[in-house]
Structures are given as structure tokens and as C-alpha cells.
Fold Major facilitator superfamily MFS_1.
Amino acid sequence: MTKAAAPHATAAGVTHWRNAVVVAYGASGLAFASWVSRLPAIRDALDLTPGNVGVLLLCLTLGSFASVSASGLIVLRLGSKQTIRTGSIMVGFGLLLAGLGTSVLASPVATAAGLAVIGLGTGSWNTASNVEGAAVERAVGRHIMPRLHGAFSLGTVAGAGLGAAAAAVSLPVALHLGAAGLVVAVSVATAASWFRADITAVAGERTYTPDHFEDPTTGPIPLITAGEGEAPLDNKRKIAQAWRDRRTLLLGVLVLGLALAEGAAGDWVALALADGHGQSDAAGAAGYGLFVTFMTIGRFAGTLVLDRYGRVPVMRWCAALAVLGLGLFVFAPVPWLAFIGLAIWGLGASLGFPVGMSAAADDPAKAAARVSVVSTIGYGAFLCGPPLLGLLAEHVGILHSLLAVMVMLAVSFFLSPVARKLG
């Protein structure tokens, strides 16, 4: 039923398409790291307590989760191109509002509103980017989704570096975040002209699936061949069916464990090194940097590994490496072993999310609905899991609270076969 464009016939157009999707992923990482890198300045400017900072972050989390939960309907209604454009503009505006709330208005409410808008824009943008990325991956005929997520990681590195430089010269938060927001919105809106994955076009109350796109270089390219006389489903029914699809739900649980491993590292590695292994704050930050570096390496190497061995063996190895690295980090008798554990942990966590998105989008006609389901489960773990680990840490300590992540990683290991390619 589904036909991908022949790579040799569409090389020039697919190259532009792929590069445009890389821009979307990289810009998302830049946006995220821009506000995160200025969080200390935001805290100081607004004179916030740790609890107040937690409330700010909760606004972002609630916005993100609401957006990703509705993202399937949004993508089906608007198409991935318009969803990404709209999301990037919302994120750009949210960055500006958060900056103005900090430096100009000195208003925690305005800053919280800006973060909520960032969250609302990010959730649907990320889901649509995964739909777009999976489509270009099919057109290329190789596993490039890990490298697309690697572009996000590089965007976070660039954003963190620019944020550190802005902080070093005491650049007002409003100027920094306003400029970052403008770059994000303009770059993605421009790149979106090359997006070609829209699997639906809305006409009144009916949703139809196109069978080609017009490539500026090569002309019409077939994407989906629908069955003769096939009636399009109502968008809400598509989402409901995706939530009842056994493979999609199992993919979500597979991604959940690996997404939790990634999210837990972001929130707890630095503190775990300081409190559990007696390291300095600087060493804690360096430890997280080591984790991110090896996760990025894993994502860029993922294309070659997946092309050679396939999804199922790679997912097994990823889950096993993450368990090994996390276990070594928790139980390391000396700090240098904990740092080795972080490197292994980062490699193991690197491919879960991108491979899960690729697997969810195996059927292009159902990609938006299924990707939204897997994204909702995965992002739910990424966003909500680390705070729950904090509650557990109150009773067992930060290091031992991370053992809960190992349990979910073990589940991911045994669920690896669900990532097998359809057809």
C-alpha cells in the first residue's frame, strides 16, 4: 500500500528536504538550550526561590504535555509543514515573552507565560518534526532519524555555548532570548518551504491523503498509494485507533524506558555526582556534558549501525548499554568509574527516541496518529519521570532512586522486537 520515492530519482529534492528537516531539529535544540542556559539569570533577576523556579518549569512542562497530547490531531488537521511553522513561531514568541518578563517587566507571571507558550509550541512541533523526519528517511532509504535527533543535540550545544557567552558579558536576557527566538522562527519558517511529508490535506470536514508531492527539482514524486475506494477516517477516529493499536502502545513503552534514562540524566546527574560521589559542582556539570557528548556520538553513529544490523538488535544493545552504564554509575566505588558509566549510559540512551519514532511511522498513512501516541508516552516519561524520581530520592537518596530507571530499561530490552520494520 505504501510506496517510497526512489532515492536515485529524487536525489536533489530529497537532499534539500533532508537539510530543511535538519534545520528544524537543530533550531528546536537551540531554542531549548537558550532559555535553559539563562535560567540562573532568570532566577536572580526575579529573585526566585527554588520552589518558584519549580513552578516556572511546571508551566513549561504542562504546556509541552498538553501540546504533545493534542499533536496527533493538530498534525492531521494542519499537516506537518504548517504545524512546524506555527510551533516555531510560538516558541520564538515565547522566548521573547520570557525575556521581556525577566529583564523589562520583572514579572514572574510574564516569564511563566512565556515558558508555557514555549511548551505549547514545542510539543506539536516535535511530533510534526518526527513525522517529517520519518518521511524523508523513507525517501532516502537509510536510517537517518538518529542523525536528525543528533542535529537537535548539536543545537543544544550551540545554544548552551551562546547562552554561556551571553551570561559572561551580562547580555540582558530579553535581548538574548529575543534574538534566539527570531533566529528560530525565521530559520524554520524558511526551511519549511522544502518540507514534503504532509500526509493529509484538509477539505472542509473531510481529510484526504495525497499520492504525490511536487518536487521543485524533479517534479511529482509518489508517496502513498491508497487502496481503491478507501474512505478517509475522521481524525479523532485515527487517533483513537492509534491508542488501541497494540504495536504502537508497546513502542511507546519501549521508548518510555529509554526516554526516562535520558531525562533522568538531564535532571539528576550533576546532583548525583555531587551528593552521591562527592564531586564538585563543576565536576557535576562536566559529567552531564560527558553524557550528552556520548549520546550525540551514538546518534550520529546510529545510521551506520542501524543500516548494518537493523532496529531490533540495536535496540537490545542500547537498552543493555544503558542498564550497564547506569548500574556502573550508581555502584561505582571510585568517581572515575562513575564517569565511564556516564559515557556508556549516554550511548545506550541515544537511539531509543529516534528509532521509536521511525518505527511508529512505518505506515505513512497512519504516521501522524501513531507518532503522536509514542511521542506522548515518551515525552511523558521524559518530562514527568525525573520529578517523580526526586520524590523517591527523598527516601532512598539520589543515586539509588536511579535504580527505578533500570527497571524500565529492562522492560525496554524485552520489548525490542516490537521495533521490527512493518512489511
